[in-house]
# Entry
Amino acid sequence: MQFKKVIGNSGLKQRLIAQVNENRISHAQLFEEREGSGALALALAYAQYINCLQRGDDSCGNCTSCIKFEKLQHPDLHFIFPTATNKEITKNASSSQFFQQWTDLLKTNPYLGLNCWVEALGVDNKQVIINTRDSQDIIQKLSLKSYEALRKIILIWLPEKMNIESSNKLLKTLEEPDANTVLLLITQDIDALLPTILSRVQIIKVAKPNDAEISSGLVDSYHFNPEAAKAASLLCEGNINRALEIANGNEDEDFYITNFQNWMRYCYTANVLDISNWVDAVATIGRERQKNIAEYGLRFFRECLVKNYGSGLNMLHEKEVAFLDKFSPFIHGGNIILLTEAFEDLHNQITRNANPKITFMNLSLNVSKMLRLKAEF
Ligand SMILES: [Zn+2]
# Structure
């Protein structure tokens, strides 16, 4: 991937290019982003640039190295990413076993988030992790001489998903740098990384691209028509992955809108049978999507406050507008803190493998009460 194809972050691209040309490439770099800001795409462009045989102000895209990088098939480009067992791979899941799925997905969408990846893996409810076998692979890959590249690249996507044993192995690797290897880590949750890892990497902050950058990127790199690109850029909250889903007419957004609205209706009417049926259904959709419902809820509560107290600049899907009109009067100073804490707690509990039926049921009953609290202005 060339830098010019990566959406947003033009200043950062220039700094990365300068690093290479001034021979200041640090051996371990951590790209920090919020999902969909383009850190993985930038890391790929950077890796390709480091190894390009005819570097200019971008990688050439045509040399033997660039061609292999574009196909994600360079023998010195290694990937480590979270996995879990599925129907085919029933034990000892590791990145190498899912390499094909990974590169297939990455070629179509280098802005992917954890959810798309979990869906591609077909692992439903399971938490994905980078396990010890992966870190053994890193050590083994480090011990090999590079085949042909100027610098061997090991790209670790979401190191926050490492278990403790892998993190410790990674630490060893970071302590004993190899001059011919560049480790590129891409995190979407820097707080979850060990301080000892953070102190051994150069941290590169990747900013959320703005609406205009996303809109023009969707037109230039993905050939969407300008109207669809603009609409997607306004709805995606700076997340390019989301923008692509919206522009592609992905059904996912509908899924969260419909589920959340039904849920809030059942909570408001306190219909226990409806709530219970809804909880049964939502218990089957997998943890990543359950966490998304929590995130969607938090966003929608904020939208309600903006409507009630703010400037009315909501950027909403048409299906959200009618519901917002009816629902927003029930969100106010008397319950917003409780609701926000409850939904953050929902997210944490699901992350910690809590039983989804019990968690969603308890929360539903609490939300029923919270929606009945009087407004305090
Ligand atoms: Zn090249």
The mean pLDDT is 89. The pocket of zinc ion is lined by residues 52-54, 59-60, 63, 65-66 (CB under 6 Å). Strands lie at 28-32, 77-80, 152-157, 181-187, 202-205. DSSP finds 17 helices and five strands in the chain.
